[in-house]
Amino acid sequence: MERIECDLCIIGAGSGGLSVAAGAAQMGASVVLIEGHEMGGDCLNYGCVPSKALIAAGKHAQAMQDGAAFGITPVNPQIDYAAAKDHVARAIATIAPHDSQERFEGFGIRVIRDWARFTSPREVVAGDATVRARRFVIATGSGPFVPSIPGLTDVPYHTNETIFALRERPEHLIVIGGGPIGMEMAQAHKRLGCKVTVIEAQKAMGKDDPELAAILLDRLRGEGIEVLEETAAERVDAEGDRITVHTSGGAVSGTHLLVAVGRRVNLDRLELDAAGVAHTPKGVTVDAGLRSSNRRIYAIGDAAGGMQFTHVAGYHAGVVIRSILFGLPAKARTDHIPWVTYCDPELAQVGLTEAQARKAHGARLEVVRFAYDQNDRAVAEGKTTGLIKVMVVKGRPVGASIVGAQAGELIALWALVIANRLKMSAVANMVAPYPTLGEIGKRAAGAYFSPRLFENETVKRVVRLVQRVLP
């Protein structure tokens, strides 16, 4: 067995692991990177990239049916589902070289393509190699959680790891799970010519602001997607080419089934007990600096048991690099982390929702709102369905919620503001180009200051006084 000694061993070549590996190697550390599955992880191969590529195909199909208001005769698109999947594959293939083994070996990193397991607090075994490192980073990500619904294992079903390889268009896709993954795939498949039913045991999009989520759900239902809320899947069976999900509200039959009820952290193979690493089913137990109970071992991204987003893994990479390479104190925050559901309209959030902010700040909270239909660019493009809400405490935003066109782009401004603890005046002072959807953020800031300026009697008295004394 080969023995390797290094400064840093990273387990998992997804977004977070690759970021740590590249940064550490280029700053002079000796690095071993271990990956037992696909380079690029879930995001490149089964998540962010393929889902957004399929959503893009669905948008093109929908645009062909939505032109009447612009003087364009609507047509029913001729959809080649397999060709849409070819687009998905091309998107993955285009990005893959950036995450490839060859690229990272070019940084001087030793890449081992096998599964890792700890054998002691300082060593892991992967394939024919034993790696002893000064520090380890667990970046194993997560995979689809499959619930224990009676009969599910006896029928063919898809998860995000298999749905993108499907070449035959489903006649009727049943989606169990009304969260972001389920809803994105539901809309994409409906626009690509499938009948779609979503089954959700609680409220669909339940982690988002309910007022804004309702706007998205209205659009999805308006496009013909059946969304069954507070409806639990109790049993699944199949007969011939039909799959039936028996629910608390009756039976739903279709041709294909997608399970999208959440994610499960990938820790099973690691044998963490041998390394003295505390963990739960939700992930590795870490402190604010992402360090585990074994001070030599860190966990980042989904493996750290918190928010499950690719950009969080990338952010965590920067936190642990500061600590591992430079010995400097570093702590991970969550209050400035945005997330987006890439349906049409998009639904985005950063910081606290209105309900969370009211619970945390009570009467000190102010909520400012601005509607898309008051934005000139939205009117020009017929994208007037949407709303922004900004939660403000003593002049400083603590959260922002947006539903509407390009909400995922617009939320970035508020992520910047919250990350740097800026005040609403910073947004009000910004000059946004006209006409853009970006003005929505500035107008929200204006909605905060307007009553302070235009409904303030002291301001009016000062203005009248100044007007009398000016020459």
Question: What does this entry show, briefly?
Answer:
This protein is of the alpha/beta class and 471 residues long.
Describe this structure as you would to a colleague.
With 471 residues, the protein is of the alpha/beta class. The protein has three domains: 2-39 and 100-144 and 264-326, FAD/NAD(P)-binding domain (3-Layer(bba) Sandwich), CATH 3.50.50.60; 152-262, FAD/NAD(P)-binding domain (3-Layer(bba) Sandwich), CATH 3.50.50; 338-454, Enolase-like, domain 1. The chain has helices at 15-26, 41-45, 48-63, 81-95, 101-106, 180-191, 210-222, 310-326, 354-361, 376-381, 407-419, 424-428, 439-454, 457-469; strands at residues 2-11, 31-34, 110-112, 116-120, 123-126, 129-138, 142-144, 172-176, 195-199, 226-228, 233-239, 242-247, 250-254, 256-259, 263-265, 279-280, 283-284, 297-299, 338-341, 346-351, 365-371, 387-393, 396-404. The strands form six sheets. Strands 1, 2, 3, 4, 5, 6 and 18 form a seven-stranded mixed β-sheet that branches. A five-stranded antiparallel β-sheet has the order 19-20-23-22-21, with helices on both faces. Strands 10-9-8-14 form a four-stranded parallel β-sheet. The longest helix is centred in the C-terminal third of the chain and has 17 residues, at 310-326. The termini are far apart. The mean pLDDT is 96. FAD binds at residues 52, 140-142, 302. Belongs to the class-I pyridine nucleotide-disulfide oxidoreductase family. It holds the Pfam family Pyr_redox_2. Keywords: Disulfide bond, FAD, Flavoprotein, NAD, NADP, Nucleotide-binding, Oxidoreductase, Redox-active center.
